[in-house]
Amino acid sequence: MMQHRSVLLPAWGPLRQAGLTLVELLVAMAIGLIVVLAVTAMIVVGRQHERVTTGFNDMTQGGAFAATVVDRALRNAGSGFMQGWNASDGLGVDTNGALGCKLNAKRDATTVLPRASAMPAPFAGFLGGASGQAKLGIAPVLIGQGQSASGSDILMVMAGSASIGGVGREIRAGLSGSRIELDNTLGFQPGDVLLVSASTGALSDCTITQVASDFSAFPANATPSKLLGIGGIYVGDTDKLGTVITAGLAPSGRGSFISGLGKISDLRMDLFGVGTDHVLYRGDLLQTGNSDTPEAMAEGVVALRAVYRVDSSISTSNPATPNLSWEAPTGTFAPDTLLAENPPEHLRRIVGVRVSLLLRSTARQPEIAADSEYTLLKDLPGATTVTLADADRHYTHRVVETTIPLRNALMP
Predict the structure, then answer these.
(1) What angle do CA 167, 83, 344 make, to 5 degrees?
(2) Cα dist. 225→75, 127, 207, 229, 258 in Å?
(3) Beta bridge partners of 308
């Protein structure tokens, strides 16, 4: 017979349940909260550094692109017409040639130059506005100090492709219908844009025209043609064209010349300036894209300043040892003064440009990230100090400068 043994339970009640006390739970939560805060702080700092790095990289890339755009334009300045300025008439009399001549151009029978109204912003103040822009003449490069909407400088650059070497060809007779007589027409291609100028001993008009699409330098008889047919989008005003040619061929004239500027896609008569929205814009003087609206080129550009590199030894009679200096675009080198000078001695002496850009990042920082002042073109004529508002100092800023030689500014 089996015996049953009684099990005695503690007198104080059932067995105690296993788990965490309230104190232990609070301690665990506090530790977890500390870990979360630490990780969050690391993420926040990391994101801030990422924003700083991204903003700085964007600023660097945007600045490099803006500098490249300006650099490329300036290096080609004067291509196609710079060597056509007809420095001397052979009798020791210095002449004006193409440089400084008042530019006339039509696109599809619509006059684009001289302008009847001011350029759209940020270029409305270039050359003092509408009246000055109506007198715009041929020049490889001009600097309009403080003339953009933002108070920065405006760069004007003119260049072609120099498809026939950039040397002006002398015109032999007055305009005959839609044909121009030259010694020969070799090198010209259908659709080429041309600059026709007259050397008259005084400031004169010049005009843009275009080689006809059906032109051939070798007609069916295989004899090289001396007659250059004109026609196309930029054929221009034939009455004005005839007047320009006749002025150079007159007894008091010193010749009329054609300079080849290449295809429309190669032609550049541009303005570069900074808008109030910190964007670098390009304006097309010839409206080659059939639009007068400036094109945004690069963001984050606060200011643009430029000065000329000048060789005062360049002359029409005696090439001498270079005598280089920096010149601000004021006084003798103000754009309207350069265009009004006859002969254009100081335009010829410009052999380079130094461009300074103040750039700004796109990422706003919680703390001050920029100095209160930045000096552009430091220690050079035309140096300018830009003072930043406190709100702008939360964005990283930097100054980028480059010196660009004008490779087409050749000595006579």
Answers:
(1) 140
(2) 34, 42, 23, 10, 16
(3) 327, 353
Taking the C-alpha atoms of residue 117 and residue 376, their distance in angstroms, rounded to an integer, is 32
CA dist 116 → 148, 209, 244, 300, 359 (Å):
19, 20, 21, 32, 34
**Which 8-state DSSP code applies to residue 162?**
-
Model pLDDT, residue 175? 92
Q: What is the pLDDT of residues 121-155, one digit of tens each?
A: 999 999 999 999 999 999 999 999 999 999 999 99
Checking if the pLDDT of 55 tops 90, the result is no
Listed in order, strand segments (DSSP E) in 80-215 are 102-107, 110-113, 141-144, 154-159, 169-170, 179-181, 193-198, 205-210
How many angstroms separate the first and last alpha carbons of the chain? 138
Closest CA to 150 of 48, 52, 279, 249: 279
What band does 100 get if pLDDT is binned at 50, 70 and 90? confident
Torsion angle of C-alpha atoms 239, 98, 329, 149, degrees rounded to 10: 30
Provide CB contacts within 8 A for 401, sequence distance 6+.
354, 355, 356, 357, 376, 377
- 362 or 123, which is more confident: 123
DSSP state for residue 223 in the 8-state scheme: P
Choose among 138, 154, 136, 127: nearest CA to 272. 154
3-state secondary structure of 336: helix
| 155 and 122 Cβ atoms separated by less than 8 Å | no
Helix (H, G, I), strand (E, B) or coil at 41: helix
Confirm if 97 and 202 have CB atoms less than 8 A apart. Answer: no
Long-range (24+ apart) CB contacts under 8 A made by 67-72 are 67/355, 67/357, 67/400, 67/402, 69/272, 69/280, 69/282, 69/297, 69/298, 70/155, 70/272, 70/355, 70/402, 70/404, 71/355, 71/402, 71/404
pTM to 2 decimal places: 0.84
* Tokens representing residue 393 in the block: 């100092």
In the beta sheet, which residues pair with residue 354? 307, 403
